Amino acid sequence: MCAGGYVVQRLFRRHGIDSAAALELTVAAILGGLVGARLYWLAEHWREAQGDVFHSMLSGAGFTWYGGLLGGVAAVIALARYRHQGLGLVANAMAPAVTLSDAVARIGCLLAGDGTYGRPSDLPWAIAFPHGIVPTSVPVQPTPAYETLAMLVVFVVLYLMARRLQPGWHVFAWFLVLSGVERFAVEFLRVNSPGSSGSRRRSGSRWPVCSSAPECC
């Protein structure tokens, strides 16, 4: 979030917008993102949480990235409208920051071993997560690492586009397109990992079903 706020501040300053507005929007995105991520997680895991909703809402784990994105976007839109700022310019400036934040978040997913990895694989860079949140002793495709690298590339592209002041929502539109392509490619790798047969033969055991939902706990 700090890196994203710095990116927004630089873009706002480049286009002659008060940098204090970048700080306000970043704080709004953080707060809205946290609330949205938790509510989305509660909706997905309602059966687990309904016994003690209050504790589930305040616990340290249980955030979903999609919910954070929706909550952050809603909070930014509300603040931008309240401050009478152009939504197109704000969206174009925030898009690279969101992409960079996603790239950083995937590092947390990889380190936590949260189950968003792919199938067993024989590739040299396959990783086992024996102590992960969703543990597996079989080397698997580290798809969160792929997502980090892909989103860093998308960030560079969007940032260079956002540096040029243009009307409309063009940078945000490209953010949606490129993020969708990245998500499809990673999900394809997650389900159709190359070099997977050897690992399954060697292991002789079942491996955990990897969730496709991008949750980082």
How would you explain this protein's 3D organization?
This protein has 217 residues and is mainly alpha-helical. The chain has one domain. It is built from nine helices and two strands.
Number of strands: 2
Residue share in helices? 55-70%
Characterize the main sheet. 2 strands, antiparallel
Across the major sheet, the strand order is 1-2
What would the average pLDDT be, to the nearest integer? 76
Count the DSSP helices.
9
Radius of gyration: 19 Å
Q: What proportion of the residues form beta strands (DSSP E)?
A: under 5%
User: How many domains, in number, for the residues?
Assistant: 1
Give start-end ranges of low-pLDDT stretches. Answer: 197-217
Write the element-wise H/E pattern from the N-terminal end onward.
HHHHHHEEHHH
What is the topological layout?
Layout: H1 2-14, H2 19-44, H3 46-49, H4 53-58, H5 65-82, H6 87-112, E1 127-129, E2 136-140, H7 143-162, H8 170-191, H9 197-203
Antiparallel strand pairs: 1-2
Give short descriptive properties of this protein.
2 strands, 65% helix, single chain, mainly alpha, two-stranded antiparallel sheet
Task: Produce a short descriptive summary.
The chain has 217 residues and is mostly helical. Helix content is 65%, strand content 4%.
